[in-house]
Structures are given as structure tokens and as C-alpha cells.
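Retry 2 of 3 after timeout on previous attempt. Resubmitting C-alpha cells to design endpoint.
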């Protein structure tokens, strides 16, 4: 993920349940009453946990570290609306402590020899490449069901999400694990989803929000003095992340080419394993030589690799270079950029794909 008017919105319990069940998160398609109910219950818990950030910041009895970070976020929230032209509403003026590590868990699934996501379709949000749960147990149960059908699966915890403006989304305790710079970027990412959302195109939506996150953070740090943030360290972190993602996307291309070959299943499995072995080898070179031993991605490689584990990278990062090119085309003007992105989103899927590919090629030159 992933990417977040006063006090909490006054919404009746029935309206909350209906909206949460039908609209909640844009996380996934709902196919059973049980799935609707867990969405509604989880959203209700989140809504009922909210409190105004201004009240926390002004309360000397609250944790000083939390107050300081939330005060900094208040400044970033104003910047988001005034400078980045992101929605000016009640989202991220509230805070919620859910007493757990993640707000939702997403389940990704693919066939054994394909990188095509097993999609879930949602009445408002459209078809998405994952299914979300407010409990890890629910996500693991869905993953087991998909695995029993022969799919490869990945369960990933999500610290932040957006309801696309249907509710006043809060800053959540699950987001506070990050550095201040990452937290500020996530705020921009989640608000970007409210600014523009294209039905049935997860890669477009996440890449758009990821670009706004990265460029918005750069602009914020360039124009604001933020204590405790080392801009050079953040730049190195960003560069490492891009190099890691490029490595994953290159592996995806290798697998796409492999899966297009007319091989028997056993031969395909052996070749697939060789691709994953090569990925691990190339990562070690990147870690030990390019990054000077930085091992921040070792945990990711500690788990078995499969198609579903690679899936989120293509969704969240695929078109970031294309949006960077579009932003430059609009002379780095945020309002003009959003208008251009909206026109791009209004194209037919094939036309949009072609335009994104052209922009990505332009960005690479």
C-alpha cells in the first residue's frame, strides 16, 4: 500500500453499516454476507475510535511524542490542501488508536503460472487486485481457501488506507511506526486517492497516489524546515526503494516471458524457481555492493517467493515514471497535473495503457 471539519462525522449506525458494507475502503468485491459484515464491523470500530488531532495536540496530559508528531502532521495536512491542491476536508484531522499493528490485511492471489491477479469486484470501487480484511484471521482463512484451489497467495498487513472520501479518514496508530518523512508522504498518498480514482484500474490509482506521495514529500521538505528529518537520508531511502522495485519489476518481466512459453508443468516450475533464485542473487549484489551492506529488505526475502508476493509491486509502482513525465509536461503545476491525470483516467483502458506507456518511455529518456 501501500496509501489518509471539525470533529468526527455524526453518522447513524445503520448508515455506517450500509456504507461500510457497500463502499468501505474500495478494498474488494463482496460476495457473502459474512464478508460484508466484517467490513462494516471493522469500519465502525475505526470510526468510533477517532478523536480530533487538535484536541490531542492541545492536551498537555497526552504523550508528548505523539503530540509532537501529530502537530507536525497538522502542518503537513494544511500544506496538502494549500500547496498540493489535495482535498480540503476532515480526513486526517482525526486520530484513531486501534490497538493493533495493521488496520487491514490484503490478500493477493495469482495462478501458478501467471502474474494476473485474482480480482474481486466491488459495486462502487470496481474490480481490484486484492481482497481486504479487518482481521488477520479473516485474511488467512481466505488465503487458505484460495491456496486449496491451487492459487499462489500473499497476505500483507496495511498500516493505512483511504475510503476515497466517503468518511473522514483518521491518522491511525498503525501509521506511526514510520519515520516523519514517510508518515507525511503517506498522508499525501491517501489524500491523492480522494482527488482521483479510476474504477477498475488498481495500477493507475496506486501509481498516481505513489507519485503524489513522493513528489509531494520532496516539495514539502524543500519548503518547510522539519526538525529530525535528514533529507539526504530520505533521498537514499527513496533511491534504495526505487532500485528494489526495479529489481522486482524486472523479475516480473522475466516471469511474464517465461509463462508465455509452451512448457510442460514440471519444466515450467524448474524455470520459475531459477528466476526466483536469480532474484535472490541479484538482491545480494544490490545489498552488499550498491547499498554497502544495507539489509533493510532482508525480511522480505526471508519468506518463500511466489507470483502473488510480487504482485503489489507492479500495482503500486508500475506507472510512477509515467506520472512523473506527466507532471513535468504540466510544468510542475499541481492543479494542471491533476487535470491532465483526470483526462488520462477518462480514456478507454486501451488508450490509457498506450498513453501511460508513452509517458513511461519519455521518462526513461
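Retry 2 succeeded. Sequence:
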Amino acid at each position: 500500500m501501500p496509501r489518509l471539519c471539525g470533529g468526527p462525522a455524526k453518522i447513524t449506525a445503520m448508515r455506517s453499516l450500509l456504507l461500510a458494507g457497500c463502499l468501505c475502503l474500495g478494498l474488494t468485491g463482496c460476495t457473502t454476507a459474512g464478508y460484508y459484515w466484517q467490513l462494516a464491523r471493522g469500519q465502525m470500530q475505526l470510526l468510533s475510535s477517532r478523536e480530533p488531532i487538535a484536541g490531542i495536540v492541545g492536551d498537555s496530559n497526552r504523550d508528548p511524542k505523539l503530540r509532537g508528531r501529530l502537530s507536525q502532521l497538522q502542518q503537513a495536512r494544511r500544506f496538502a490542501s494549500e500547496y498540493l491542491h489535495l482535498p480540503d476536508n476532515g480526513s486526517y484531522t482525526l486520530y484513531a488508536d486501534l490497538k493493533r499493528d495493521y488496520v487491514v490485511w490484503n490478500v493477493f492471489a495469482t495462478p501458478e503460472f501467471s502474474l494476473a491477479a485474482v480480482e474481486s469486484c466491488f459495486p462502487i470501487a470496481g474490480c481490484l487486485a486484492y481482497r481486504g480484511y479487518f482481521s488477520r484471521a479473516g485474511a488467512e482463512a481466505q488465503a487458505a481457501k484460495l491456496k486449496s484451489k491451487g492459487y499462489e497467495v500473499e497476505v500483507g498487513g496495511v498500516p493505512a488506507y483511504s475510503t476515497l472520501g466517503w468518511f473522514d479518514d483518521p491518522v491511525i496508530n498503525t501509521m506511526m511506526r514510520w519515520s516523519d518523512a514517510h508518515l507525511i508522504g503517506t498522508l499525501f498518498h491517501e489524500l491523492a486517492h480522494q482527488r482521483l480514482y479510476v474504477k477498475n484500474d488498481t495500477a493507475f490509482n496506486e501509481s498516481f497516489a505513489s507519485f503524489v506521495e513522493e513528489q509531494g514529500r520532496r516539495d514539502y521538505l524543500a519548503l518547510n524546515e522539519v526538525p529530525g528529518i535528514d533529507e539526504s537520508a530520505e533521498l537514499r531511502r527513496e533511491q534504495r526503494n526505487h532500485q528494489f522495485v526495479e529489481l522486482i519489476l524486472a523479475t516480473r518481466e522475466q516471469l511474464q516471458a517465461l509463462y508465455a512459453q509452451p512448457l510442460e508443468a514440471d519444466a515450467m516450475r524448474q524455470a520459475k524457481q531459477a528466476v526466483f533464485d536469480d532474484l535472490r542473487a541479484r538482491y545480494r549484489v544490490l545489498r552488499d555492493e550498491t547499498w554497502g551492506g544495507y539489509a533493510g529488505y532482508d525480511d522480505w526475502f526471508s519468506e518463500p517467493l511466489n507470483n502473488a508476493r510480487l504482485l503489489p509491486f507492479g500495482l503500486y509502482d508500475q506507472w510512477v515514471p509515467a506520472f512523473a513525465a506527466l507532471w513535468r509536461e504540466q510544468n510542475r503545476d499541481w492543479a494542471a497535473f491533476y487535470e491532465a491525470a483526470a483526462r488520462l483516467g477518462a480514456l478507454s483502458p486501451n488508450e490509457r495503457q498506450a498513453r501511460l506507456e508513452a509517458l513511461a518511455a519519455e521518462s526513461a529518456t
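Attempt log closed. Residues 183 and 312 are 20 Å apart (CA to CA).
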